[in-house]
Amino acid sequence: MLKTMLYNEISVKECPLVKKGKVRDIYKAGDNLILVATDRISAFDYILPNPIPFKGVILTQISNFWFDFVRDIIPNHIISTDVHSFPQAMHTFKNMLQGRSILVKKASVFPIECVVRGYLAGSGYKEYKKNNSVCGIKLPPGMDNGSKLPEPIFTPATKAEEGHDENITAKQAADIIGQDNLAYLQDVSIQIYSKAQKYALTKGIIIADTKFEFGVIDDKIILIDEVLTPDSSRFWPVEHYTVGNNPVSFDKQFVRDYLELIDWDKNPPVPKLPVNIIRKTAEKYLEAYTWLTGKKDLSLPEEFF
């Protein structure tokens, strides 16, 4: 069983913190980077006061599983997942970093999100209701929330440091990164999604949609960031899937539902989460890991709650 501690921001002169995102902290490690998945959770564009214990570990392990699974399609940025191979200065914090961090190559990142949709949901469904299309791609009439698309579609988006990413057309994406790059990213994104979706179905999970990030190292395009986690994808249990409804998902839906229930106005102060919501959310993330990987080597330590 993986033993780890709750994560707190690290202060090490040799490996300074260079970026603090909603969920990830990024540390410089010479010419490379250390990505740390924290237990922070965001909803409605705010980081909530309560972390979800072990969330960062679970998401990192899911992502590492997929990085290896699609290695035959495209290389990735991972150098090592073993804390002992990190710079010596970080070894003091190995119990905190273990399982939730990876040492990666530093890439030049494409400034778009590569979104693939296999089902109509979220912003895609909202856009479809207005004009029967998503990101300029015309779709058949009469589709409903949760409808399976005739084939997966590539719907790029801009990256937003704050707030929501914005859906854009393929032409707009090509204007940003170039037509040749876009054509390659579209092809490889759909390849990754299709392989993962086929596998996930054998484990009782529908991957409704997902987003990928890519970068360039030595003139080669690689897969970076995270891959096919409940934070970057919609995972639906096959057994609960029905068209026209929002299926129960393997993510922070318990958090969103609770915040809607208490009638929060989506402005500060951000409310705290009760223990039962924190636990249910953590259990859902863990369930996704267990279903997808078939492993039972992770558990939720009681002292975290």
Secondary-structure map with pairings?
Elements: E1 17-20, E2 24-29, E3 32-37, E4 42-43, E5 46-47, H1 55-69, E6 78-80, H2 94-97, E7 101-105, E8 108-109, E9 112-119, H3 122-131, E10 133-134, E11 137-138, E12 148-154, E13 157-158, H4 170-177, H5 179-202, E14 205-217, E15 220-224, E16 233-237, H6 253-261, H7 275-293
Antiparallel strand pairs: 1-2, 2-3, 3-7, 4-5, 6-7, 8-14, 9-12, 9-13, 9-14, 10-11, 14-15, 14-16
Descriptive overview:
This protein folds into two domains: about 1-105, Phosphorylase Kinase, domain 1 (2-Layer Sandwich), CATH 3.30.200; about 110-240, D-amino Acid Aminotransferase, Chain A, domain 1 (2-Layer Sandwich). By secondary structure, it is of the alpha+beta class. The strands form four sheets. Strands 8, 9, 12, 13, 14, 15 and 16 form a seven-stranded antiparallel β-sheet that branches. It contains seven helices and 16 strands.
Count up the helices.
7
Order of helices and strands: EEEEEHEHEEEHEEEEHHEEEHH
Distance between the termini: 18 Å
Fill in the CATH topology of the largest domain. Answer: D-amino Acid Aminotransferase, Chain A, domain 1
Q: Which homologous superfamily in CATH is the superfamily of the largest domain? A: ATP-grasp fold, B domain
